[in-house]
């Protein structure tokens, strides 16, 4: 085997430089690699932030555009009902104050039944209501929409005629029927009591079992049948319109204008609306100045073209929403 006579020429820089160059070229490559990795990470981070922002924009674009908040929103004022304990609720519901209906006149700004001194003005509360779902309790509904009634012996004839007129008007537009109480046929009935027994316009809500009272002082029926029908609707199981759970979408409660002792009268609760829209003109709606402490409005409609409780101040007929709710209430259970 012939050995080559030519050997590779060594660099004049020598092996030391070669090793030095290899070492620092590795360092340069490592630094370059780290720098690239950092740049890529920054790009990924930037890209991730951009994608998140884009997703948020698309998500917000899919949401309905809400109207700007205005001073009429309930959110502008703290709702004290949210801080109520169970004891607070019980105290508000069971407290009985002096009736002021003798001070009411047709020119008064509020409704006469708001001045009866009971819960929400005119609701006679059963302590059992504090421990059960009284609003949606089907046992509180009158079977077959028949409401037996009787007049207290002392109830005056002119008052009886007005009550019968109010009942007749209700029967003409709803499925409800009022029947004279017969002991052998009825185990629950409404006894209508008058001037010798009360100075209030008031009723319990729904069927209570046995005899239950519906109180009508002379002033309650002296100006037509609206107040009578209002109390009869309580006896049928309906609460005031403003206490509906969805009410904050329709009215603003001005808590600062409400008498402190009456704040509980404005708490909302879960009530059945049977698919019927909130009724500003309901015969069951508070007046705009109900329980005011300074003469200012306590309930303001969020729709400027609406007036709350207007119907109870202008005529003696029921609004169609109340009629629909009455019929749906019994069609769903009978």
From TrEMBL:
Chain sites annotated for binding Zn(2+): 230, 234, 240
Alphabetized GO MF terms: metalloendopeptidase activity; zinc ion binding
Gene3D superfamilies: Collagenase (Catalytic Domain)
CDD domains to which the protein is assigned, alphabetical: ZnMc_astacin_like
Cofactor binding, note field: Binds 1 zinc ion per subunit.
Assigned EC number: 3.4.24.-
GO biological process: proteolysis
Record-linked InterPro entries: Astacin-like_dom, MetalloPept_cat_dom_sf, Peptidase_M12A, Peptidase_Metallo
Cofactor: Zn(2+)
Active-site residues (renumbered): 231
Residue ranges occupied by any Peptidase M12A domain in the UniProt entry: 133-334
UniProtKB keywords: Hydrolase, Metal-binding, Metalloprotease, Protease, Zinc
Pfam family, one: Astacin
Residues annotated as transmembrane: none
Protein name from the UniProt record: Metalloendopeptidase
Organism: Bemisia tabaci
